[in-house]
Amino acid sequence: MSDHFTRVLSRPEFIALMAALMALNALAIDVMLPALPYMGEALGVANENERQFVVSSYMLGMGIAVLAFGPLSDRFGRRGPLLVGMAIYIVAAIAAIFAPTFGILLLLRFIQGMGAASVRVITMSVVRDRYSGREMAEVMSLTFMVFMAIPIIAPGVGQILLLTGPWQTIFIFMGVLAAAFWFWTYRRLPETLALDKRRPLTFSGIATSFKIVFTNRPAISYGLAGTFLFGALFGFISSSQQIYVDIYGLGVYFPVAFAAMAGLMAVSSFTNSRIVRRFGMRRLSHGAMLSFTIVSGIWLALALAGFMPLWLFFPLLAIIMFSFGWASSNMNSLSMEPLGAVAGTASSVFGFIQTVGGALIGSYTGQHFDGTTVPAATGYFTMGILALICILIAEKGKLFGVGEQYAHPKGEPVMEAH
User: Fold this and answer.
1) Share above pLDDT 90 across residues of the chain, in percent, rounded to a whole number
2) Domain 3-400 class in CATH
3) Which of 43, 154, 226, 370 is 20 to 30 Å from 284 by CA-CA measure?
């Protein structure tokens, strides 16, 4: 990395900026949740479950567009495509204020998600440009920690905005905040992809990049494991307002409960950043996935038996969310680690798989909400099993190892050390 980059953007500011950019995605999802009933009522949506499409349409738009932003960022660098994508996000957010129908609102959310795809892909690519190995995992964890501050406060912010104005106020807030982050990025983030590292934007060049990603067994397996994890999370998020309000009657305290869960994920990411260099990405993520799956199975069994009071539901979900924080940040790093030479395309592929796959899985789970926590518990447990299978494929049937040796983009061999 150039001296200019190091001088202009310090490590703390780099982490803060990456976290802020990633937070735009969390904001666009979580700040919406308290407003879903008001949007549905204002735009004539009779079916309560259909309100969830405000979340899933955004996710689908983002998931589809990431396929374009990866190769674009590998060809033209990170800055240009990132700034263009953020501009699309801002325009769509402001336009949503004037949406006359629910269908138009969903279309604008889809377009907003397409713009957000630039953030989803390029932030991970920029982190991979600058760091590798356990240091990358540490930075990714710190980024996720700050990123998780948004889900902690977003539903509360949404609730406050609804007290001061109509549901359109939320879109004004999103647009203004994204504009501020755009200006920060424009002024402070230099290009991180050197000219000699850029890949041609031709069919053969793109095909070669995609082949490199899809034929790397550990990378693609961890990418799929992340898909199942995010599918479980999106399934819960989609129906969280109904679970907390309709089942447990928390009412206006729903944002508090939601913030507590997000806070645990932030604490999890922070603790991961402190210990990942000592224990390694694999040991931490594998242990977290076992915890995630076992506790989800306990939740499902109790929910099927009809015994799931709030005092029991909350600690079980807390363990699952803490485990999610360890598993997701490390598995993201493990999927990107072998693919530094095609970081943009790799981030694009995993972004597409995880976002579209996660949105479809989450939407399917959310649409099965039946007044109990059984659908959400089923989603967590099933996705945990599938993620563990992917990990076993990545590691050739072994858990808690240190991984295989593979080539670093610059040529020297790399292996996760003991």
Assistant:
1) 35
2) mainly alpha
3) 154
